[in-house]
Amino acid sequence: MPEITGYHAHVYFDAETQYAAQQVCEEAARLFPVQLGRMHARNVGPHPRWSCQLGFAADAFDKIIPWLMLNRKGLTVFTHPETGEHLEDHRDRAIWMGEMLDLDLSIFDRLDA
Prior knowledge:
By secondary structure, this protein is of the alpha+beta class. 34% of the residues lie in helices and 28% in strands. The protein has helices at residues 18-31, 61-71, 86-91, 106-112, and strands spanning 6-13, 34-40, 50-57, 77-82, 95-97.
């Protein structure tokens, strides 16, 4: 069984919800030991919407995920483990809060080649 070394939570937004997403991400970084990524105002990697990434250790999951559930301001949040098995982590092991979206998983074909 692969080991979970951490998690990424991707907070999705668009032009109308960018400020709300920034508030959620900055507050999470203020309250918890998360690595705050950039606010990407374009689709990045497999993500079908603009996003900001919150990276955190496995032992912070039980604090950060409940907080996101209650404080995501109606935004879609996609969370996946980090095991080194990128396709499986994004496709099979993810947690969605809000709308479930289709990821562009073809990026992982190129990573594995």
